[in-house]
Amino acid sequence: MPSSTKILYFLLSAMLTAISIGLLGYAMSTTWSKTLMDCEGFGTNNGSAEITMGLFSGNLVRNTCPSFGSEETFPVFPALSAIEITPLVLHGLCVGLLSVCFLTSALSILISFYNSVSNPYETYMGPNGIYTCSSISACSSVLVIIIYVLNLLLTKMQEELVPSIADISNVELTHKRLEVRLGYFLLIPYAVLSLLAILFIYLYDHAAYTHRREQERPTEDAPKEIMMY
What we know:
Elements: H1 4-29, E1 31-41, E2 44-54, E3 57-63, E4 70-75, H2 76-81, H3 85-115, H4 127-154, H5 157-166, E5 171-180, H6 182-185, H7 187-215, H8 224-228
Helix pairs in contact: 1-3, 1-7, 3-4, 4-7
């Protein structure tokens, strides 16, 4: 049966990972970016277009762009499949990496609970399993943070989505202003919590290792009077 100290550390690690999964789930359900662009068509400035995107759905608001205003909601993946392939691939990669985050975080929780009732020190179900799963979670979330911003900055995703969704032509979208939203920023505390989960297990594992080394101290470290006896 594990000690109370071990139970406490592994349950704390599981709790931190569970909180991170909650944050990630909310992040994936809310908006990630908002882009405002000036709309120029037929030789004059005709207003603006604002596109707000989450991972799976988005919203387009046109203010006299090019002639009439409207607001419409669209599914992200079908909309991206109608334009060039690069934004679709990068966006799909982000969603795939976030799925990996979910899976590895869930595995980390299961391993933590298992260790709170058992002592599988030398197997992948021990601390090494938590190190691996939580490290993959943190690294994957950092990659998403980088890839998502690159998709916004280096591609013409928003400029191509507006005419494609609204089915308009002869319009040029200029002066793009980007704003990342809550869903994107929630990846930062998610990564931090994953690293904290590793830290708790490392602190316990290091203390347990030090204790075992002290118990296995070689006989030459014993006091001379004990060796002479």
